[in-house]
Amino acid sequence: MIVQTKRSTEKLIKQDTLLSSSESQVINPEIYFDENKPPENLTQIRDNTIEFIKKNKQAGRPIVLVTSGGTTVPLENNTVRFIDNFSAGTRGASSTEEFLKKGYGVIFLHRKHSLQPFNRHYTVPENGFLDFFNIDESGRIQIKGKYEEVVRNDILTFTNVISTGKLYMPYFTTLSDYLFILREVTLLMAPMNQDAMFYLAAAVSDFFIPAGEMVEHKIQSSDGDLILKMNQVPKFLRPLVNSWAPKSFVVSFKVSAYVYFNTTFESLVGMIMAMLD
């Protein structure tokens, strides 16, 4: 990526080695991991995942990794500004509930503060969160009658899947967090072969700024207009399918701006294959 301001062209960041998205060649996915920083909690997530896999294998449960929510792309190493891929996380959270009903152990890798399974039902009540409650004559807080049954059922279900080790919910914020955790968890699950499934519903950024090419501190508005040229994110679906977990079942989603009602099956297959390259 190149960061350029109108009155400060001397602050170009490694302009001679970077190209705009229209000019650049996508880097090898493995090079991405060499040139970017893993999240600080990656070791903890690895340890928790190993324990989760062990417990669910002993219980005879297949495991699915569900990814959910959008990734951010920081503009500075000490991040003040970032570009966000918006996603509430509805598909990932609701799908996790269904996988749990079907007997899967679920690793729910989600964007921090995005919708979560079971909790997602209580984010936007009619008049805000407090609309769920009232206060009785003794001053005790109660759940309103119209919500009571569904809240009770969700509390019981959520408590059960957590206490029995059926649900593990690590989170990410940045694109780099997501990709490092995705690779780590995938490689740990891969030995399960057909008993491992990957359901990739996260909204992953298409462009990013390599960590070594970001400015360290806040980009100053006093320098004038800001011009951003960003690198294209490598396609990680192909190595996941071919190398990381070649014997597992993988589901991925692609948001498109086009409508394909009159498109032939062969054309759709061609479009899908192009997305993998």
TrEMBL record:
Molecular function terms from GO: ligase activity
Keyword Ligase among record annotations: yes
Matching SUPFAM superfamilies: CoaB-like (SSF102645)
Name under which the protein is recorded: Phosphopantothenate-cysteine ligase 2
Key words, A-Z: Ligase
InterPro entries: CoaB-like_sf
GO term, biological process aspect, one: coenzyme A biosynthetic process
Domain of life: Eukaryota
